Amino acid sequence: MLTNKKVAIIGVGKMGETLLNGMIKNNLVKKENIAGSTAQEEHAKEINKKYGIQTYINNKEMISGKDIIILAIKPQMMKKVLSSIKDIISEKQLIISIAAATSTQFIEECLEKNIPVVRAMPNTPALINEGMTVLCPGKYIDENHIQMAIDIFGAVGLVEVIHREELMDVVTALSGSGPAYTYIIIESLTEGGLRMGLPRELAQKLTAQTLLGAAKMVLKTGMHPALLKGDVTTPAGVTVDGLMELEDGGIRVALIKAVSRATEKSREISR
Ligand SMILES: NC(=O)c1ccc[n+]([C@@H]2O[C@H](COP(=O)([O-])OP(=O)(O)OC[C@H]3O[C@@H](n4cnc5c(N)ncnc54)[C@H](OP(=O)(O)O)[C@@H]3O)[C@@H](O)[C@H]2O)c1
Fold this sequence. Notes:
alpha/beta; binds NADP nicotinamide-adenine-dinucleotide phosphate; 2 domains; ProC C-terminal domain-like fold
């Protein structure tokens, strides 16, 4: 579906480059049909050299003739960038925004046209094709638009579509920020192994593969994690002692609070 589409990425930073890489590696869009922009000329040159795509520091010049425009700039840059392209953007172009805390309505209003906008919240494991992206359509979106967005983010991981945009703040706090919470868990379990005498490299590998395996068990079986936990916990065994310490440390409440607090922060920024 995307083979002959022309794509422009405004803001080839961490996430923009991840999407660029995913589209090229998966032959989703031809290299000659992708362009990217950055704020600094030096960075644009680097991207051009690394991927062989056309790069720009002038967004207006870049978006002309493109079918899909991906906004991968920081939320605070959004207003300025949108006002710089609003005169030339057309309703035939699809906007996909990955900016946190930036609503489709805000983008539609800044552009002052009935522009199709899809809001997306990906996460950093997209870099290794293990991302989780949630999409949410704006007011002027049809099924084709959604499908194109699914194709782009499907190249770098799993994709879900939701239609209640107010839930995007929770999505941001859960799967968007989630890798950061998970790294703390990996770091801490590794240190537990280290404290009890395992070499660091081994402890880290055991931890990461254990989290990966447990996560895959949940995704593949669709079972409630409490039931899967039951399979590891034998009467008077080792695991139950470990679980007791986790409960005593308030791990559940801490994680629930992390998502709640980050959701509130996302709502606050959105306002
Ligand atoms: N990082 C995450 O985990 C994550 C997850 C989900 C969504 N997001 C969202 O993704 C967006 C980008 O985040 P990021 O972490 O990728 O940030 P980043 O690495 O700082 O990338 C932002 C890029 O935007 C470029 N830029 C700034 N002003 C520009 C302009 N006027 N025209 C064109 N390009 C411009 C910058 O160029 P220079 O490099 O030349 O300065 C930079 O490459 C944010 O809105 C964020 O909310 C991030």
